[in-house]
Amino acid sequence: MNITVKSALTGLALAGFAMGAQAADIVVGGKNFTEQQLLSAITQLVLEANGHNVDNRAGMGSAAVRQAMENGQIDVYWEYTGTSLITYNKIEEKLDPEATYERVKELDAEKGIVWLNPSEANNTYALAMRAEDSEETGIATISDLAQAVNDDSDLTLASNAEFYARADGLKPLQETYGFEFGRANIKRMDTGLVYQALKDGQVDVGLVFATDGRIPAFNFTVLADDKGYFPSYALAPVIRHEVLEANPDIGEVLNEVSAKLNDEVMANLNASVDVEKISIENAATQFLEDNGLI
Amino acid sequence: MTQSLGLGRAATLLLVFALGIWVSASGLVDSIVTYWEDIVYLTKQHLVLVASSGVAAILIGVPVGIWLSRPSMEKYAETVMQIFNIGTTIPTLAVVALSMTLLGIGFPPAFFGLFVASLLPIVRNTYAGLLTVPAHLKEAATGMGMTRRQILWRVELPNALYVIFSGIRTALAINVGTTPLAFLIGGGGLGELIFTGIDLMDTGMLLAGAIPTAALAVAVDFLMGQAQLHLIPKGVNPLR
């Protein structure tokens, strides 16, 4: 009997200890590419500097991270306005950047998700080619590309898994511009490998993110989206309403971070990791120190 | 014994039946069927990867296993096998990633990574199978005046065949299950559906990749089992 009580108490104590160890009050999420890993790390460091206990869960697909937030498993992460508008809220009308932000703010509020201040960084999807190829073939816009594909030039495209199947992804893009890459001409791979594949000449066109530092570093030309297919993908911190209520300071801190971000800052941060091979954590720390945030 | 087997089988069938009802009720079947074109296209890629890397691993693995089992290699064989054993503990994902750094993106690194992952069980079983051939058989063959080569082909290999086949069977099962990782380095295959399904939280898409992968693994294992049963001569086949 005595032993039973003792072991029960020990068990309780251990359980309590485990709970204590896990008692991170804020869970930071993130998607599965460099920029998002940087933002998760920045968020973690800045919140820890402000006395929060943080758990970092970067590395999910868009839909997964969104679902996790709706389920309350993730408290805060960085999202792009266009992704929420088209992929999560299925809105098909074309909106300008401000209207996009206002609309998703309104729609996501119903789900208990708060959009904090948007940054000036617009990380739109884009199609890119090697600069010399673009000059040689005269392909400078996606319309030119559509023309070339329709004229039977055997161009290949590298895409990541998500873009291939998203509502704001490849298939509707091809419908808008009236062309179609053959199934065998689309090579799908991990997001980060697309740049290497394009650089090494394994494909002719690559799906890139506009704020990726490898675009200038590898001398790529981004094809102009002349029909305005892509929405605005302004980058902003999103947070669960309850969490913000309980910790209003987090909103203030993240708005400060958001105000420091624009396309150039983001591209440089991404390049420092992808091109100069600085670790995510060091790059994030450097950014926060340079901006006096920690 | 037979009765308990029958019960187990009935329970399994019931379970599969219930699962089928649940899947069709949840509308997953429809969403899986929408990816039919993708499934067919990617299954072909998947099979090409499995077949090419599997055949290459057999063609290289069996001779290497034989070579290691020869008396002249006796001193080094254990060391080499230990190195191979350590090699087996490297996660396949890491093998695939490393081969990418060597061979770039697409089919070649995927082929190479899968080849390496399948090689180890084949070499190990070939080596072990040949070592466990009873010494008295080899002595009898020597006594009958057979040359070394004749002993290898007529005595050792037939007696080791069952173990060698088991190694190939294991290797191919690992191979089919690992091939989805080829997607990550642009090698195609059913991994495209699985990983896209994970990214988009689209269960239908995920299953459209996962179910054919599992079915392929089962089919390959079944075919190898049949081959093991029918191709290995009666006298040295524990199954017959």
From TrEMBL, chain A:
Transmembrane segments: none
UniProt GO cellular component terms: ATP-binding cassette (ABC) transporter complex
Keyword Transport: no
Region forming the signal peptide: 1-23
Ranges where the ABC-type glycine betaine transport system substrate-binding domain occurs: 25-289
Keyword Signal recorded: yes
Entry GO MF terms: transmembrane transporter activity
Keywords per UniProt: Signal
Name of the featured protein: Glycine betaine ABC transporter substrate-binding protein
Organism name: Paracoccus saliphilus
UniProtKB/TrEMBL annotation, chain B:
Membrane spanning residue stretches: 47-68, 80-105, 111-137, 157-185, 205-224
Any single Gene Ontology cellular-component annotation: plasma membrane
Domain ABC transmembrane type-1: 43-224
One Gene Ontology biological process: transmembrane transport
Membrane topology type: Multi-pass membrane protein
Keyword annotations of the record: Membrane, Transmembrane, Transmembrane helix, Transport
Compartments where located: Cell membrane
Cross-referenced InterPro entries: ABC_transp_perm/SBD, MetI-like, MetI-like_sf
One Pfam family in the UniProt entry: BPD_transp_1
Main location: membrane
PANTHER family: GLYCINE BETAINE/L-PROLINE TRANSPORT SYSTEM PERMEASE PROTEIN PROW, OSMOPROTECTANT IMPORT PERMEASE PROTEIN OSMW
UniProt similarity note: Belongs to the binding-protein-dependent transport system permease family.
Name under which the protein is recorded: ABC transporter permease
The organism's taxonomic lineage, starting at the top: Bacteria, Pseudomonadati, Pseudomonadota, Alphaproteobacteria, Rhodobacterales
